[in-house]
DNA sequence: GCGACAG
DNA sequence: ATCTTGTCGC
């Protein structure tokens, strides 16, 4: 009995993955890893400040999905929009959903992307004035076993420039936390807070970043869509008040609060119908 | 075979 | 992802 259910679940999981791999490989053909946007990135402290022509990016979106311990299939997706110059939240959207798909390493997008895309679609239909010009995603871009993580998935399907942010390293192409740690601590890298991530194959996967002066644990940045690695790093630098870039941090905080309020106000029953 | 495995 | 109190430092 026990072994049978394991066998069945194992079989469905692997056939699912095979199908998902094909989807990822197909979507990957549409992936753009160069800057492909009309706005400009505000110059950092060391850059010349003279851009009178093109308009600077104004609205940066941050997305995250939170869960409830008591009911792991219940999730709240959040999209927050920040003013790039102040990092103030100017808009927020939430969507509570029932997840039907389990989390499988390498296939995060099949769990979380539909929620994010749903929110974006709703905003786009309304021609919302705060529709983001770029998305920062809580998960990797090309730093992924097949070079197509959540940020790529969301970026391609929404056709928005996207950047992936990992709070933990997904081990790919020989990359490891230990290796990154050594490079960050290396004497020749003193003061450097960005370490390019080159795998043993020579591939550039993104970068590890010490996002605040005193943070020990780096974040992992990789382009999702329509942006280069270098530009991704410039954007992330603009957003780091704390270790986790503000757009993602706010999406994380606010999606959690949203679920807390549902719990506190006993609205869980109505969710059985609204959150399909 | 063993360990690793974004959120 | 989820939980959680105190604690350290500016």
TrEMBL record:
One GO MF term attached to the UniProt entry: RNA endonuclease activity producing 5'-phosphomonoesters, hydrolytic mechanism
Transmembrane segments annotated in the record for this chain: none
Keywords tagged on the record: Cytoplasm, Endonuclease, Hydrolase, Nuclease
Tree of life domain: Eukaryota
Cited InterPro entries: Endonuclease-V (IPR007581)
Compartment(s): Cytoplasm
Any one Pfam family match given in the protein's UniProt record, by short name: Endonuclease_5
Classification via CDD domains: Endonuclease_V (cd06559)
GO annotation terms (biological process): DNA repair
GO cellular component: cytoplasm; nucleolus
HAMAP family: Endonuclease_5
Protein name: Endonuclease V
Organism: Platanthera zijinensis
Source organism phylogeny: Eukaryota, Viridiplantae, Streptophyta, Embryophyta, Tracheophyta
